[in-house]
Specification:
With about 190 residues, the protein is an alpha+beta fold. It contains eight helices and seven strands, in the order βαααααββαβαβαββ.
């Protein structure tokens, strides 16, 4: 499958494809990754169209907020990946508080369109997110996956990725402040 998969930075010229991915996911359709960037009040007030408009302005900024994956030229998935410092929620979170003072990058959201699920696309998105972060100067990539061995989770709760997916990609657990939500890291250089 990897030979049929490609990824590109999520830039304004790909907005229609990005929206096709988000629109195929009930929570993604309304969230648009605003959860990670905005204070709670703004995020909740923008649920739906407000977050959609906010996300359009985010994609228009010089630094892409993530990557878009294609399977045979069809938009298939999204991965949010950017410097940790841009994510307001991470700055305020006790469970995901900074492990140290390193300027790490974070990946925090995976969306795969329904027709492309259960084919390993999240793992491919992660592979290309690591490459994207590295090319853009990240020395270390951090994530906050769900440990399914610690707690049963439904599909909607797995948007940050699964612990097994990250461990298989070479990430190591560096902290765990919630039973089912470890913090994992990968050295990029």
């Amino acid at each position: 499958m990897q030979d049929r998969f490609s990824s590109f930075p999520a830039t304004a010229d790909r907005l229609a494809d990005i929206e096709a991915v988000f629109d195929d996911c009930a929570d993604g359709r309304n969230c648009r990754c605003a959860y990670w960037y905005l204070p709670n009040a703004d995020y909740k007030a923008g649920w739906g169209e407000g977050n959609r408009n906010w996300f359009r302005s985010l994609v228009a900024e010089p630094r892409p907020p993530g990557i878009l994956g294609y399977l045979e030229n069809e938009p298939a998935g999204w991965c949010g990946v950017a410097p940790r410092a841009v994510f307001d929620r991470l700055r305020r979170s006790k469970p995901f508080a900074a492990v140290d003072d390193r300027p790490v990058w974070s990946t925090n959201c995976f969306i795969v369109r329904k027709p492309f699920r259960r084919q390993g696309l999240s793992r491919l998105l992660l592979k290309y997110a690591v490459e994207f972060a590295t090319v853009n100067g990240a020395a270390c990539l951090e994530a906050y996956p769900v440990d399914q061995a610690a707690r049963a989770s439904n599909g909607a709760e797995l948007y940050p990725g699964t612990l097994s997916m990250f461990l298989d990609a070479g990430f190591a657990e560096v902290a765990r402040r919630l039973p089912a939500r470890p913090i994992v890291r990968l050295e990029c250089r």
